[in-house]
Amino acid sequence: MRIAIASDHAAFALKAELAEALAEWGHDVVDLGPFSDARVDYPDFGYTLARAIATGDVERGVALCGSGIGISIAVNRDAACRAALVSDPYSATLAREHNDANVIAMGARLIGVDQAKACLEAFLTATFAGGRHEGRVAKLSHPTL
Amino acid sequence: MRIAIASDHAAFALKAELAEALAEWGHDVVDLGPFSDARVDYPDFGYTLARAIATGDVERGVALCGSGIGISIAVNRDAACRAALVSDPYSATLAREHNDANVIAMGARLIGVDQAKACLEAFLTATFAGGRHEGRVAKLSHPTL
């Protein structure tokens, strides 16, 4: 799969670890930055990732910041994105099965590297269950606020 | 504080527990439903909660579904909302301190009642740190996708 990854400075090291794991698993990884650990604003990188999903350039996204909260909010501003903030693999599985999530968000200050890799693996291997979840996901894609 | 709470059927029981806790703590609680555990679609209740925040009817929101993922995505479709999906009190504190989150989201299938109450208490007592976080939060409120 073609997968984009983006973070802020707080998650710069975790981004490198997960990008390496994705490449090892055979995926085509698009690193959207940042490219150093200098201070940046997570919304900028979240919006860049959202655009990559919305345009169809990538099939999945990985969004990282200190807590995962800020960048998950940014990515979910775009109705093309369904970003799931998770801290355990079962949540990552549910995100795919129930919500057809196309972006996984995690917090580098909160999760260990191995747990983050386990979440990422669960997210990439689980499949959308469809059925009763279809209509709910459609409502997320065409919000009627 | 005037606080709205909304869920889906999977989190109907947790909603009742947390609404009771909020009332005990002296808050003015606005229950936006659902009012039974019959199957509903989480985006509908997420959008209703988002509207209550956007209009200024309530100061804070509590958004609940099975995993918390679906309803947090729905709430974050509205640029007036900063919904933080959490499963531990430290994340709930960071959500206020760094992201000025106005909505807390939790997953009823994933979190115990006491842990959920601890998250809620942390969310309601922590304060926004401002400073370097101001500009980032502003970018979430006026997305330039």
- Amount of helix of chain A: 40-55%
Q: Within the CATH hierarchy, at the fold level, what is the topology of chain A?
A: Ribose 5-phosphate Isomerase B, Chain: A
Q: Average the pLDDT over all residues of chain A and give the rounded result.
A: 96
The largest beta-sheet of chain A arranges its strands as: 2-1-3-5-4
The N- to C-terminal Cα distance of chain A equals 32 Å
Largest sheet of chain A: 5 strands, parallel
Name the chain pair whose interface involves the most residues. A-B, 45 and 45 residues
> Structural class of the secondary elements of chain A?
alpha/beta
CATH architecture of chain A: 3-Layer(aba) Sandwich
Quote the beta fraction of chain A: 15-25%
Work out the radius of gyration of chain A.
14 Å
Could you say which overall geometry of chain A the principal axes of the C-alpha atoms support?
globular
The number of helical elements of chain A comes to: 6
Q: Describe the oligomeric state of these chains in a short phrase.
A: homodimer
Order of helices and strands of chain A: EHEHEHEHEHH
As residue ranges, the low-confidence spans of chain A are: none
CATH class of chain A: Alpha Beta
Number of spatially distinct domains of chain A: 1
CATH superfamily of chain A: Sugar-phosphate isomerase, RpiB/LacA/LacB
Describe this structure in words.
Two copies of one chain form a homodimer. A five-stranded parallel β-sheet of chain A has the order 2-1-3-5-4, sandwiched between helices. The first copy, chain A, is α/β, with parallel strands linked by helices and 145 residues long. In chain A, 46% of the residues lie in helices and 16% in strands. The relative contact order of chain A is 0.18. Chain A has one domain: Sugar-phosphate isomerase, RpiB/LacA/LacB (Ribose 5-phosphate Isomerase B, Chain: A, 3-Layer(aba) Sandwich). In chain A, α1 packs across α5 (113-125), α2 (42-54) packs parallel to α3 (69-75) and α4 runs parallel beside α5 (113-125). The A-B interface holds A 39, 41-44, 47, 50-51, 54, 66-67, 69-70, 72-74, 76-79, 82-88, 90-91, 94-95, 98-99, 101, 107, 109-110, 132, 135-136, 139-140, 143-145 and B 39, 41-44, 47, 50-51, 54, 66-67, 69-70, 72-74, 76-79, 82-88, 90-91, 94-95, 98-99, 101, 107, 109-110, 132, 135-136, 139-140, 143-145.
